[in-house]
Amino acid sequence: MTITPSLLYNYLQCPHRVWRDKYGPQAEKSQETNPFVEMLWNKGIQHEKKVVSKLGELTDISEGSYDERFDMTVERMKNGASLIYQGVIKHDDLFGIPDLLKKMPDGDYIPIDIKSGMALSGVDEEKGDEGKPKKHYAVQLCSYADVLYNLGFSKQKRGKIIDAGLNEVEFDLLAPRGPRTPETYWQLYERIRNNVSLLITNQEKNYPAMQGVCKFCPWYESCKKWVEKTHDLSGLFCVGRRVRDALNDNLHIHKIEEVLDIDIESIMEEKKRDKQFLKGIGEPSLKKIVRRAQIFYKTGKPVLYESITFPEVSYELFFDIENDPTQEFVYLHGIYERHNGQERFLDFTATELTPEAEKEAWRKFWEYIDSLPQNDYAVYYYSAHEKTTYKKLQKLYPDIISAGKVEKFFENPAVIDLYNDIIQRQTDWPLGSYGIKAIAQYLGFHWRDETPSGALSIQWFNKYLEDKDPAELQRILDYNEDDCKAMMVLKDALQVPGKADPLFTLFNR
Ligand code: SF4
Q: FRET label pair with 218: which of 30, 172, 233, 315, CA 20 to 30 Å apart?
């Protein structure tokens, strides 16, 4: 039994992945690598090469068998090598290959990993928030530091990340994870290591729970099939692993149909007596789960909790952006415009990976918005992503538009976040996801692309940058146009004329 940093990483992504990789139905595991995951992998390798090329002299131990490399690594550290690349370290059940091992002035060796993402999350210069270590990076460093400590090459538990911005960030692995999370990174590592150990030895078993990351996992189809076949509670929108497990353990219910029989009143009484009972799951959440189970299992019809009135305007714009978070780059602002019964798609696209191209596309977007008759247009988008991204763009290009104007644009009641303002608050669907793809497809809309996905759009864009194939760019535009059109289909479906509408059940909460 060997525990590697990638097992710890997999556990943090999804605790079930660790068990399924070892004991799951192997025939159901996809052998194809998701192109987006492959792209990230290649970017990581390129970034590592770039960093390493700037480091100067180092001891390269990237060749040979693991045993040979381990022996060489130990020998080089004993001889005091200042910087070791791709050394192999192991102790007991732990095994790892830190990108770098650096000798510190106090004689200790410190593990350094090179990452193509930023080392810290939650950095907000405006609020003075310096951010905190990404936990999957910290846990990985902990496992290296643990081995070095046990091999006698380090007296301290510490490590560094060289990140996408080429910052060398030291992680205090003994620090609490946050002001409200007293658990330290080291304690988190020990907890995860213990759980991983139980899972890979089959002393413990856990179950799939569908979540965003599943789309990139080779077990996606297999786990989805299991959730559908078993009527697992995680098939309900917003019932994730934590809530599912609490309902399993505390109420002994495992199937969606069993939720229909729960007695919320007596559960609330029990919660008053026992603070640990269904901890963190309150009455509104329970009611929501029951309602969704009814819709999912019994009625099979979407529900509108109140009829919705949309702005009556000459121009309706269905708006969606495409950006590459790995490079902090917005490459497309797409608008599907409906005006006087005519429809057209407009794109404001950066076809080069340069700040000038990004800025120019954004400038043209705002020029278009300014060309519309004021107070006579409505904008529909899906989720807070557009707003958040535009605030960031404004900081990058303040000469294009002021912060106040961006704020005002999104505060306009005719600029509507369909997901947060309407779908989440005023509707429910017999679906496991309330994403635009799931809902629009439920409403009969079809994307032209066979594998429509935002992640793949990023991969297509990066491929386009390499080979400049116009077909690749067209694929991105078609995908974005279909995303925008899907919102139009949804908006039209929501604008029901009254209680006679056969699509929705009208329901008071
Ligand atoms: S598909 Fe989802 S639930 Fe299944 S192993 Fe992968 S990440 Fe976990």
A: 233
